[in-house]
């Protein structure tokens, strides 16, 4: 039997389903039942019927799936796959900001640990952050952990006062304006499509800014035939599959999230066989981090 056939057989035997983020390896994306950005995957995870969820992504994604689905078994193909930005905020600073501003809403990017989510009022993803922040009654917004997404949202919602944190995604921060200028010089007709985790200077050079799903959608809707993609290189697989007539370039040093790339077909097979790397959470932490995630799903409807 091939690895794929064995995975399919175990999925049937164990009533399992595979979810994958666009940043994982193409050969992993091909095995997924559901593939998408963080928002899509959290919506899917909240409504699954299957008993076992194999989450091909990083730890905050598996954790969120467990929080939204406490009765299910969530398995991570590689337990080391983590997101550096998920840890880049501080409980003490959140407490101080809450003391300073009466009506503050702590808005927590889903790329965060459950420990940070439990201290927050609402979660957001890059696909729904503007919509959710607009919908909040609060004027003061403390946006954690990502400073770049925070600045992007603040520009779209000028009526609110933002307090910024200093977290960032090391993968998207690598993308520099000089690299974009060089790519534009090589492909002058290409449009620049960027993820809001990129720096403000990069976003200023972009024709479109959006989540990974937003980028994929925009590339299909645009009349342009060539694009410079400023996000993790895993999205290439979906872009090329959907739009074979269009061309996609990345900046010279292609952005790669090494944690996302830890997931391989062999590791999926292994956890399906053994039940290893199950996401186990403290009950109180799970319950407290559930509210901001559910608030996100409610406000983003
Ligand atoms: P989206 O899935 O919201 O596009 O975010 C990208 C990301 O960094 C996921 O880790
Ligand atoms: Fe985290 Fe950046 Fe990797 Fe996304 S790409 S998982 S934000 S380190």
TrEMBL record:
Pathway: Cofactor biosynthesis; NAD(+) biosynthesis; quinolinate from iminoaspartate: step 1/1. Its cofactor is [4Fe-4S] cluster. GO terms for biological process: 'de novo' NAD+ biosynthetic process from L-aspartate. GO terms for cellular component: cytosol. It is an enzyme of class 2 (transferase). It comes from Mediterraneibacter catenae. This is Quinolinate synthase. InterPro entries: NadA (IPR003473), NadA_sf (IPR036094). The keyword Iron applies. Its EC number is 2.5.1.72. PANTHER family: QUINOLINATE SYNTHASE, CHLOROPLASTIC (PTHR30573:SF0), QUINOLINATE SYNTHETASE A (PTHR30573). One of its GO terms (molecular function) is 4 iron, 4 sulfur cluster binding. It comes from the Bacteria. Keywords: 4Fe-4S, Iron, Iron-sulfur, Metal-binding, Pyridine nucleotide biosynthesis, Transferase. Pfam families: NadA.
């Amino acid at each position: 039997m091939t690895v794929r056939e064995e995975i399919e057989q175990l999925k049937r035997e164990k009533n399992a389903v595979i979810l994958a983020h666009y940043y994982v390896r193409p050969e992993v994306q091909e095995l997924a039942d559901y593939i998408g950005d963080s928002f899509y995957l959290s919506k899917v995870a909240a409504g699954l019927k299957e008993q076992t969820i194999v989450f091909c992504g990083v730890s905050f994604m598996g954790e969120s799936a467990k929080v939204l689905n406490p009765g299910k078994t969530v398995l991570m193909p590689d337990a080391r796959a983590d997101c550096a930005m998920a840890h880049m905020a501080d409980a003490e600073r959140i407490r101080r900001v809450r003391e300073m501003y009466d009506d503050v809403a702590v808005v927590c990017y889903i790329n965060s640990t459950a420990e940070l989510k439990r201290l927050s009022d609402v979660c957001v993803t890059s696909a729904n952050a503007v919509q959710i922040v607009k919908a909040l009654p609060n004027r003061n917004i403390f946006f954690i952990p990502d400073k770049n997404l925070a600045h992007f949202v603040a520009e779209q919602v000028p009526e609110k006062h933002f307090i910024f944190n200093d977290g960032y995604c090391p993968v998207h921060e690598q993308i520099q304006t000089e690299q974009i200028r060089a790519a534009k010089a090589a492909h002058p007709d290409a449009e620049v499509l960027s993820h809001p985790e990129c720096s403000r200077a990069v976003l200023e050079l972009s024709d479109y800014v959006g989540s990974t799903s937003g980028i994929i959608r925009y590339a299909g809707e645009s009349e342009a035939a060539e694009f410079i993609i400023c996000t993790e290189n895993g999205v290439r697989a979906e872009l090329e599959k959907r739009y074979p007539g269009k061309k996609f370039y990345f900046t010279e040093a292609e952005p790669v999230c090494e944690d996302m790339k830890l997931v391989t077909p062999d590791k999926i097979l292994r956890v399906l066989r053994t039940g290893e790397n199950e996401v186990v959470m403290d009950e109180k932490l799970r319950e407290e981090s559930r509210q901001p995630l559910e608030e996100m799903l409610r406000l983003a409807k």
